[in-house]
Specification:
Layout (H helix, E strand, L loop, with lengths): L1 H11 L17 H12 L11 H23 L8 H4 L7 H12 L10 H18 L4 H4 L5 E8 L22 E11 L4 E10 L8 E13 L4 E13 L9 E3 L15 E8 L3 E6 L4 E6 L1
Antiparallel strand pairs: 1-2, 1-9, 2-3, 3-4, 4-5, 5-6, 5-7, 7-8, 8-9
Helix pairs in contact: 5-6
Subcellular location: Plastid
Protein name: Plastid lipid-associated protein/fibrillin conserved domain-containing protein
Pfam families: PAP_fibrillin
């Protein structure tokens, strides 16, 4: 009896969705009763509104396009505009072409001995272009670039037709007893040695062949500015070459300072106006322009 009471209470709290369990008037048709029960148990589907197919596809394309653009805006932002400093940058000047221009200007001048006023101007202009591109030289950080043996290919001072350049020196020329050969500078940044090495050919009476010698003018150098160098003369050593190369070198006696002209003390100053690993331009204390290449 208690069980029946409990079952009656359970039925009284059953949701209305289960009312299909109650007998339904189906005119006594068992099959209709079964279908009615299944229909009542089947959940109702929600009918969504329909849109024309073409309109739905267009909306879908717009949605995809908008999504793609939004994603690209996050992943690939537009590049920022260059700053004023970046926009002012120009392509680097072809230093090699400026070097070639300078070498072309001084070629055929016999290191400056055959230069006229027009040749001097062209060489000076070409040197200034290379100096402007290279910028200021700071030997306090670039001193190691001076190290080595440098070959002189041009000196505006030689246009004076003397080996002393702007200073007094022995004359040179085809009919004179001294012919200038190659000129080098040997620089040692550790020992501070600065040697000017000059190859000379000394004329002799016929039939004696000319005497070939190499004169080494030894100096010490010091920096007196960011790009300025001072050299102090020490001695001159001469060594015969060619057929007389077996002779020992000898030191040329130095003229006493009291007898030496004030303009030819052997000391000098110059400024390095361009310097890289293979080319060097200097301007002397008397305005001489010299061009060297590493040897």
């Amino acid at each position: 009896m208690g069980s029946l009471t409990h079952f009656s209470a359970l039925l009284s709290h059953t949701p209305t969705s289960l009312t299909f369990l109650h007998p339904v008037n189906n005119h006594g048709n068992p099959r209709a009763s079964k279908l009615q029960s299944q229909k009542a148990f089947r959940p109702q589907r929600q009918v969504l509104p329909t849109y024309p197919l073409q309109k739905w596809n267009l909306s879908k394309r717009n949605l995809i396009r908008r999504s793609t653009l939004d994603e690209a805006a996050v992943l690939d932002p537009p590049p920022s505009l260059p700053t004023s400093s970046e926009s002012e940058k120009t392509d680097p000047v072809d230093v090699a072409s400026l070097k070639l221009k300078l070498l072309s200007a001084v070629s055929g001048l016999n290191r400056g001995l055959a230069a006229n006023e027009e040749d001097l101007r062209k060489a000076d202009d070409a040197a200034k272009e290379l100096e402007a591109v290279g910028g200021p030289v700071d030997l306090s950080v670039e001193l190691d670039k001076l190290q080595g043996r440098w070959k002189l290919i041009y000196s505006s001072a030689f246009s004076s037709r003397t080996l002393g350049g702007s200073r007094p020196g022995p004359p040179t020329g085809r009919l004179l007893p001294i012919t200038l050969g190659q000129v080098f500078q040997r620089i040692d940044i550790v020992s501070k040695d600065f040697d000017n090495i000059v190859e000379l050919q000394l004329g002799t009476p016929w039939p004696i062949p000319p005497v070939e010698v190499t004169a080494t003018l030894a100096h010490k150098f010091e920096l007196i500015g960011p790009a300025k160098v001072k050299i102090v003369f020490e001695k001159t050593t001469v060594k015969t070459t060619g057929n007389l190369s077996q002779l020992p070198p000898f030191e040329v006696p130095r003229i006493p300072d009291a007898l030496r002209p004030p303009s030819n003390t052997g000391n000098g100053e110059f400024e390095v106006t361009y310097l890289d690993s293979d080319t060097r331009i200097t301007r002397g204390d008397r305005g001489e322009v010299r061009v060297f290449v590493i040897s």
